[in-house]
């Protein structure tokens, strides 16, 4: 007795398969469908250098990051999570929560005025790794998935910020000059570093959205200086000294929860806040734990190191000598994989 479907049926199947796809003819097992990484290589045969082989980014997304140095993913962080981060930030501003290692910055226009325990006094908080609630942002799996496509499987959270851009006091000091984040980082390689920046509300040109120069990540790290702004510039808000003024600027209009991933050499800044609200964004810079520290002495980054040391001396006393590398090693936190060099 012949099994149901026997030779006759398999012959018919073979003919059908040949008809559908000559390469899947009899004998050959069904080939698995091509992965996203394979598709990307077929479609864009040039070498990828800013992204790693992965099966998350579509070929178009991967190509976009390679060419432009940034990629916006819509609606990546939930409203609920963002409200938790907002509440925690408010508690920090009201002094209800003390976070070890946190740096609180006030806008230059209010830095010298009387202290008020309110978000109105805070332009940005930095290094919130010691706050478990805010740090949860850096560990969100949907963010780390994208980060892994750029930095690989061993991921350190190196630098964290919650930016609370105040209504401009009329001096344009709420602007952030165009800069490259790598200017502040004494580690390399740049291609294994990425920033995730999430809008905590709708952010457009009225409240000071991010402005990027697409493709600028392909250039070198540039010389940075304080811009000559009449209304004053915030401490450490260095800007690129010269950049191609003809490069088109792109204003990234983002909705709450939208997240942009960008390369540390991408030239970016943000405009002034013309609204009455405090424009909020949360961000984390990630690096592969395979990265290594560099000595910035004798480079364009030397001045940053000196300036940060000077701030630390003022704050903690004259005898303190901050080794930049040590300061980064203490702050950095592993979020995925193994801690190697960093
Ligand atoms: C990807 C980006 C990477 C980065 O951004 S890495 C850059 C690292 N960033 C930093 O190190 C943060 C810099 N900011 C700070 O450390 C602090 O905000 C800063 C400036 C020390 C102020 O700390 P506070 O604890 O508020 O100290 P303080 O009230 O005693 O002020 C000390 C002196 O600084 C002045 N100041 C405070 N906020 C300022 C501002 N926004 N712009 C300009 N000057 C500012 C303040 O007036 C005071 O000056 P003075 O000593 O009285 O002459
Ligand atoms: N003189 C300057 N030096 C360095 N950066 C600057 C200077 N003037 C403006 N910027 C920065 O350049 C970026 C782009 O400026 P641009 O005028 O295109 O947009 P914007 O000021 O953000 O928004 P809008 O044009 O809607 O006011 C902003 O991030 C701003 O902070
Ligand atoms: O205005 C912003 O949110 C961007 C700030 C920024 O680029 C930075 O602090 O490095
Ligand atoms: Fe930046
Ligand atoms: Mg402008």
Provide structural commentary:
It is built from nine helices and 16 strands. The chain has helices at 7-20, 36-43, 59-68, 79-93, 108-111, 132-139, 141-151, 302-316, 324-331, and strands at residues 70-73, 103-105, 124-126, 155-165, 176-179, 187-188, 193-199, 210-212, 224-225, 239-240, 250-252, 259-262, 268-270, 279-288, 292-293, 333-336. The strands form four sheets. Strands 1, 2, 3, 4, 7, 12, 14 and 16 form an eight-stranded antiparallel sheet that branches. The chain has a four-stranded antiparallel sheet with strand order 5-13-8-11, with no helix packed on it. The chain is globular. The relative contact order is 0.17. Residues 1-27 have low confidence and may be disordered. Residues 103, 105-108, 111-112, 126, 159, 181, 184, 234-236, 308, 311 line the site of Butyryl Coenzyme A.
Short description:
The chain has 342 residues and is an alpha+beta fold. The protein has helices at 7-20, 36-43, 59-68, 79-93, 108-111, 132-139, 141-151, 302-316, 324-331, and strands at residues 70-73, 103-105, 124-126, 155-165, 176-179, 187-188, 193-199, 210-212, 224-225, 239-240, 250-252, 259-262, 268-270, 279-288, 292-293, 333-336. Strands 1, 2, 3, 4, 7, 12, 14 and 16 form an eight-stranded antiparallel beta sheet that branches. Strands 5-13-8-11 form a four-stranded antiparallel beta sheet, with no helix packed on it. It has a two-stranded antiparallel ribbon with strand order 6-15.
């Amino acid at each position: 007795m012949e099994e149901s479907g026997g030779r006759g049926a398999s012959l018919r199947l073979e003919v059908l398969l040949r008809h559908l796809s000559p390469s899947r003819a009899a004998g050959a097992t069904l080939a698995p469908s091509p992965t996203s990484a394979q598709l990307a290589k077929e479609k864009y045969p040039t070498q990828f250098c800013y992204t790693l082989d992965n099966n998350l980014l579509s070929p178009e997304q991967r190509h976009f990051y390679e060419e432009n140095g940034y990629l916006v993913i819509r609606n990546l962080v939930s409203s609920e999570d963002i409200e938790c981060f907002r509440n925690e930030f408010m508690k920090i501003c009201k002094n209800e929560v003390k976070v070890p290692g946190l740096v609180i910055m006030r806008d230059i226009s209010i830095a010298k005025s009387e202290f008020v325990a309110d978000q109105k006094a805070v332009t940005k908080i930095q290094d919130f790794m010691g706050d478990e609630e805010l740090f949860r942002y850096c560990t969100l799996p949907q963010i780390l998935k994208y980060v892994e496509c750029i930095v690989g499987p061993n991921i350190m959270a190196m630098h964290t910020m919650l930016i609370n851009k105040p209504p401009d006091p009329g001096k344009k000091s709420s602007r952030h000059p165009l800069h490259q984040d790598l200017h502040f980082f004494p580690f390399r390689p740049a291609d294994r570093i990425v920033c995730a920046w999430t809008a905590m509300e709708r952010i457009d040109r009225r409240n000071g959205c991010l402005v990027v120069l697409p493709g600028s990540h392909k250039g070198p790290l540039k010389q940075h200086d304080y811009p000559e702004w009449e209304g004053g510039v915030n401490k450490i808000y260095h800007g690129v000294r010269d950049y191609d003024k003809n490069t088109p600027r792109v204003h990234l209009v983002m909705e709450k929860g939208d997240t942009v991933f960008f390369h540390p050499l991408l030239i970016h800044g943000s405009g002034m806040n013309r609204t009455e609200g405090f424009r909020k964004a949360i961000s984390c810079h990630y690096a592969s734990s395979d990265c290594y520290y560099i000595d910035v002495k004798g480079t364009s980054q030397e001045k940053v190191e000196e300036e940060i040391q000077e701030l630390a001396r003022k704050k903690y006393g004259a005898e303190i000598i901050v080794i930049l590398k040590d300061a980064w090693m203490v702050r950095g936190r592993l979020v995925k994989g193994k801690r190697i060099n960093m």
